[in-house]
Amino acid sequence: MLMFFTLVSFLIALAILIAIHEFGHFWIAQRLGVKVLRFSIGFGRPLLSWRRGADQTEYVIAAIPLGGYVKMLDERESDEPIPAAERDRAFNRQVLWKRAAIVVAGPLFNLLFAIIAYWGVFMAGDTGLKPVIGTVEPTSIAAEAGFQPGDQLLTVGERLTPSWEQALLALTVAAMDGQDLSIQVRDANQHLRDRLIPREALSGLTEEPKLLERLGVTPQRPVIPAVIGEVLPGEPAAEAGLQVGDRVRTVAGEPITAWRELVERVRQQAGQPLLLEIERPGVGVQQVTIRPRAVEVEGQMQGRIGAGVQARDDLMAAYLVRIEHGPLESLGLAFTKTYEMSALMLRMMGRMLIGEASIHNLSGPISIAETAGRSASYGLEAFMQFLAVVSISLGVLNLLPIPVLDGGHLMFYLIEWIKGSPVSENAMLQGQKVGFLLLAALMTLAFYVDLSRLLG
Hints:
Blueprint: H1 2-31, E1 36-52, E2 57-72, H2 96-124, E3 126-129, E4 133-136, H3 141-144, E5 152-156, E6 159-160, H4 164-177, E7 181-186, E8 192-197, H5 199-202, H6 211-215, E9 217-219, E10 228-231, H7 236-239, E11 247-251, E12 254-255, H8 259-268, E13 274-280, E14 284-290, E15 293-297, E16 300-304, E17 307-309, H9 313-317, E18 320-323, H10 327-353, H11 365-378, H12 380-398, H13 406-419, H14 425-455
C-alpha cells in the first residue's frame, strides 16, 4: 500500500507540473494567434482524447506520463501543404519575439505556479520544526565554533531562521558565498550568543548532501517513550503477547529509554530472538521473548515486530513553530522564496559542473517519487511545498541553453537575432543530437545516484 500511495502521489505531481508547463506554451500560443493542433499530457498511445474549440484542438492523455507537448501548426512539420488562409497562424511564420514568448512561457508558468503555491502556504500558515540543536559531535565544525546542545538558531548571517527549513536554506547559501558566517543563537539558559564559522570550514559543506551531518549537529527532537500503542494481529509482537500500554524497559539486558532505540534494536535482529523486559500497567515487570520478522526495506533485510508507538500529541508541541503572514507579505515572501530557490539550484548545478559539489546532490525519479509520497502523507501543505520545489526545478532546467529544451530554442533565437537570419536546419539538427546525448547522460547519472543511495 505504501508503494502504491507513493506511485500515485508521484503520478499526480507529474501530471500537475507537466500540465502547468505545457499550458504555458498553449495559452500564450493561442493569445498570439498561433493555431494549436494538440495538447498532450504524456507520450505514446493516447488513453483518452477529445476535441474542443473553434480550431478543434485535440486534448490527449497518453500512456507514458513522463512529459508532454503542445503541437502547433508548423510548415516544417506538416506532411501536407497548409491552406493559404491559415499560413499566418503557423508557428514558423511568427516574428522572433512571438516565437520566443511561446517557448519561454512553459518555464515561466512553472515558476509562476511555485509563487502561487508558496503564497498559499505562507497565508495558510507554515508549521516547521524549531531550529534547536539536539547534539553536537565532538571535534566537528559546530563544536569548534562553540555550538552547544540547546542552542536555538535565530539568525544565519542576515537571515531570520524561525524554522529548520529556513536555517538550512540560509546555511546552504552561506556555504556557497565563501565568507565567514556569523550565527546568532539563544542558548539553553536563554542568553543571546554569537557563533562564528570561518569560511575555510564552510567551503566543503555543500560537497555532499546532509549538510547538518557534515556540520556536526542534529536537530533537537522529543524523546518518545518506548510504550506500545498498537499491536498488529498475526505479527511477532502479538504472537509474543505484547499489549497496548506495555513499556519496554530493556532489550537483551540493555536499557531502553526511547522508542527509536527499540526500533533500531529490532531492525538489527531480523529473524533472531530478542529478550524484552516490559512493564505492564497493573501487572508489573515481565519478560517476553520475541523474534522480529525479516522484511526487505530498500534492498536490505530488517527486523519488524508489528507494533506501533503510543502517540502523544503534547510531545511535539514544544518543538514546533507556526509561521503565518498576511496576503501582501506572503506574496512578497513567495516571490523571494522562488527567486532564492531558483538561484540556489543554478549555483548548485554550476558547482557540480566544476567539481565543487557532489553529484549526490542530484535527485532522480526514484528520490522524487519517494519525496512525493512522503510529502503527500504529511498533508496538503507539505505536498504543495514539494510541488513548488519541483516546479522551480523544471522551470530552471528547461531554461538551460541545451538544445531540445526550451532554453536551447531560446539560444537559437538569440543567435537568429544577432545574425539577422534563422539558424540552419542542419545546425539545429546537430544541436538537438548533442542535447539528447546530454539529457540522456544526465538521466543516467540521476538514476545511478538514486540506485547508489538505495543500495548504499
